[in-house]
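Input/output pair, single chain:
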Amino acid sequence: MPHDTLTTLSTLVGTRLKAKGFMLGTAESCTGGWVGQALTAISGSSDYYGCGFITYSNSAKHEILGVPSSLLEQFGAVSEETARAMAAGALVHAKADIALAITGVAGPGGGSGRNPVGTVCFGWAMKGSEPQSARKHFDGDRDAVRRQSVIFSLQGVLERLE
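Output:
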């Protein structure tokens, strides 16, 4: 997806968040802050984007976002359970109205039978609602997996704002 498509999507997310008076928080692992970068590339994003966490390690997911160690041990970092817990933690710690989380295997190494390279789990949390999640598999190199993950996560925010 071209860069201008990501800019257009980030602008649309910002417009919808601002219209609702919502603040967004993010918790990113395999995307390393790319969602935050995409959002803050838009002038005025401080009106709707307050805080993002890059929690690459399991200890960061636990210590910063409050993801239970038992959950990480049982389901692993790349799981819908972890993505939902990351989103819930970002919602609280960012003092946001809506939060997204991304955790996955961007490659080229690190994949397993259960989570091959390109497997990414997403979480979205909103005040007053149970966190939701999705699991996707993306093709391509590391950059392509990460870009597709950013786009999918932002599309998920739009869906939840409708």
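The chain has six helices and five strands. The chain has one domain: 3-161.
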